[in-house]
Design goal:
The complex is a heterodimer of chains A (about 500) and B (about 190). In chain A, about 55% of the residues lie in helices and about 15% in strands. Chain A has eight helices and twelve strands. Chain B is built from seven helices and eleven strands. In chain B, the strands form two sheets. In chain B, strands 3-4-2-5-6-7-8-10-11 form a nine-stranded mixed beta sheet. A two-stranded antiparallel ribbon of chain B has the order 1-9. In chain B, strand 10 and strand 11 form a beta hairpin. Chain B is globular, with a radius of gyration of 16 Å. Classes of the chains: A alpha+beta (about 500), B alpha/beta (about 190). At the A-B interface, helix 1 and strand 5 of A face helix 1, helix 2, strand 3, strand 8 and helix 7 of B.
């Protein structure tokens, strides 16, 4: 893990900065003092040694003058009190060694040959040569070699400095440990509350302001922020509550509505069923008396014809025709109700061949008519074949019927694309109708033409529309009076 | 340059001393003795303080007197030639009788004179004159030469010096073979 100052806690940062600052200040001042001290010490040592040499020179002058080497040696012997002096010697004026001194423990040896007055430092030792005067006469030279003691002083100094450094650091750290609470304490309080806010979402807490510095400003800002959040949260909560209430109300309304719709649907379905059952049973029940009428009028016509005059026979004929029409009407009603109730059985089949069958059947009913059927081959559909037969019977039947007065009748069956969907059409060039009445076209029992002109029950197209709708498709018509009509439907 | 000239003189003298010491001269007043004593006579002056306010005649020259027949002769004249004491040129004056002694800073009483007049220095008592004699012929001088281990050394009579009003340097005292002070006679060497 890479060490990073930024990752440290404020406590550690403060500690680091404090220790670094104190340490650097101590070391710098220590080094400055050391440098100053060593320079001063060096000069002082040189002065010391030189003045000692001067003193000895002055003392030894008489001994040299009066040729008393013993006395000179005795003077030099006083250097025993100066353990830093390693060696000393006096020379006569012409350079001969007069008296010598060596520190106890030093190996024996001859002093160096005399040199001109001066001083130099060699390997932490100072070497001094001073002239010896007696009165105004030069009577000799004194030599002294003494340890500078710089290394020793340096060592001692460094030890003291280290001790001072350690003590200062200890005191500094102890002080810091006590004083950093003043800085980090308020910060830690803010941090603790911030943690509470983040982890528990508790915005009710506040930090106690203890200082007037930047942390104090931070505490104020933090508290204000918390108040703001708390207020906004409260208003948000009430808003949410409002929303929820409204939503609940809506849900209740929706449920009520649904229930009402379901109720109505059930009622409607029930009514429908009843209606269908009613119409079915009515149709059935109507058939029985109709059969009786038909049967008995037939018997009257066949077995009692001689008893009827021409007028009676004519009336009988009209009764029979009316009965037949009524039978057709009932049949259509039954079909209508069947097409609603029967189950839809889809199947892929060729509608073109079905159309041809129906066309053939229609032509067979009126062999004298000249009608051209143009049926597009390969109209494959997915639909209930039985119901589609009803559809084609009605549409083609209508076309056949309304072209009966046209000299060259043409009936087309084909396919077109309408709004991306495949649609099928049945077109004729017959009577057509007025588009104003197109809305009434698909209603049951609605007729656009007088029954005397074109026979029909007025139920067929209503039935067709139901079947198409049950397939999920739609049907519409376009026509112009005298120019024919087109019925188009889709199947899905 | 006078300083260099003096140095040369001292060196020459010391060379002569060395030669003479090497010759192991032991007889009284050998040439070595004479030479050493001649030099010492004015060298003592560096370690002696005379009282201020003495005879004005003494201020311009440093006067060495020699009393007695067997004076140091040419050796002394040679030794003092060109030398100065406290900036004053040295003048050597010879006396036959103590009564003639007048205006000297140092007076050397030769062994011959001392032997002739045992109380020769009595007239000079209390006068600021550094009297020098020989232990071999005592005459009550402040400094007495001694021949010790073939070297010319000296005794000092501190009492006599005080009587004469002279201050002798401790450096000089420490070189003395014996120092006589009051009734006690300290033989420290």
């Amino acid at each position: 893990v890479k060490w990073s100052f930024a990752a440290l806690s404020i406590r550690a940062k403060l500690m680091t900065i404090f220790v670094l600052t104190t340490g650097i200040a101590l070391v710098m001042s220590g080094l400055a003092f050391l440098a100053y001290d060593l320079l001063t010490y060096r000069q002082q040592r040189l002065n010391d040694v030189t003045s000692q040499a001067e003193l000895l020179a002055s003392l030894s002058a008489a001994a040299l003058t009066f040729d008393d080497p013993e006395a000179a040696a005795e003077y030099l012997g006083a250097l025993r009190a100066r353990p830093r002096v390693v060696e000393a010697a006096t020379y006569q004026a012409q350079g001969r060694v007069f008296a010598t001194y060596r520190r106890q423990g030093e190996p024996a040896g001859e002093p160096p040959s005399v040199e001109p007055p001066g001083q130099r430092v060699e390997r932490d030792e100072v070497l001094v040569f001073r002239p010896i005067h007696s009165g105004s006469d030069l009577v000799g030279t004194i030599f002294m070699r003494a340890q500078m003691g710089i290394a020793e002083r340096l060592t001692r100094y460094l030890i003291i400095m280290l001790a001072v450094f350690a003590a200062s650091m200890l005191v500094a750290v102890l002080l810091l440990v006590r004083m950093q609470v003043l800085i980090t304490g308020p910060l830690l309080e803010v941090t603790a509350v911030a943690h509470g806010v983040v982890q528990r979402g508790d915005h009710s807490q506040r930090v106690v302001k203890r200082t007037e510095d930047e942390v104090g400003v931070l505490v104020d800002a933090f508290n204000q922020m918390l108040s703001g959040i708390e207020q906004r949260e409260a208003s948000l909560q009430s808003e949410i509550a409002h929303h929820k209430e409204a939503r609940d109300e809506l849900a209740v309304l929706a449920r009520e509505l649904e229930a009402r719709v379901a109720e109505r649907t059930a009622e409607l379905a029930n009514a429908n069923r009843e209606l269908e059952a009613f119409s079915y049973s009515v149709s059935h029940d109507l058939r029985a008396p109709l059969r009786s009428i038909d049967g008995f009028t037939h018997i009257l016509q066949t077995e009692h014809a001689e008893k009827l005059d021409e007028k009676g026979k004519q009336y009988m004929e009209r009764v029979r025709a009316a009965t037949e029409r009524m039978g057709a009407l009932i049949d259509d009603l039954l079909k209508l109700s069947r097409s609603v109730r029967a189950e839809l059985v889809r199947k892929v089949f060729d509608m073109s061949s079905l159309a041809r069958q129906v066309a053939g059947e229609l032509q067979a009913t009126a062999p004298g008519r000249d009608v051209v059927f143009s049926i597009e081959p390969g109209l494959v559909v997915d639909a209930d074949p039985a119901l589609m037969r009803t559809v084609l019977e009605n549409l083609l039947g209508n076309a056949f019927k309304f072209t009966s007065k046209v000299p060259r009748a043409l009936i087309e069956v084909g396919r077109v694309q309408v709004d991306g969907d495949t649609a099928y059409f049945v077109r004729d060039n017959g009577t057509g109708f007025d588009m104003r009445y197109v809305d009434k076209l698909f209603g049951a029992f609605q007729r656009l033409h007088p029954a005397a002109e074109y026979e029909g029950t007025g139920i067929g197209l209503a039935n067709v529309q139901r079947i198409i709708r049950r397939h999920g498709g739609r049907i519409w018509a376009e026509a112009e009076v005298g120019k024919g009509a087109t019925f188009t439907f889709t199947l899905t | 340059m006078p300083i260099r000239a003096r140095h040369v003189g001292v060196a020459r003298l010391a060379a002569a001393l060395a030669v003479l010491i090497g010759a192991r001269a032991i007889a009284a007043q050998t040439p070595l003795e004479r030479a050493v004593k001649s030099v010492y006579l004015f060298k003592f002056a560096d370690y002696v303080e005379w009282p201020p306010g003495v005879d004005p005649a003494l201020r311009t020259t440093f006067n060495i007197g020699v009393l007695g027949p067997d004076d140091l002769g040419a050796t002394l004249d040679e030794a003092v030639k060109g030398r100065r004491v406290g900036g004053r040129p040295i003048v050597v004056r010879r006396f036959d009788r103590v009564a003639e002694v007048e205006g000297v800073d140092v007076l050397y009483v030769t062994p011959g004179a001392a032997a002739r007049w045992p109380d020769v220095l009595a007239p000079l008592d209390g006068r600021p004159v550094l009297t020098v004699g020989d232990r071999s012929a005592p005459c009550g001088a402040i400094i007495e030469f001694v021949l010790h281990e073939n070297k010319v050394r000296f005794d000092i009579d501190a009492t006599a010096a005080r009587r004469a009003g002279l201050k002798l340097s401790s450096k000089l005292m420490s070189l003395a073979l014996a120092v006589k002070d009051g009734e006690s006679s300290e033989a420290d060497r």
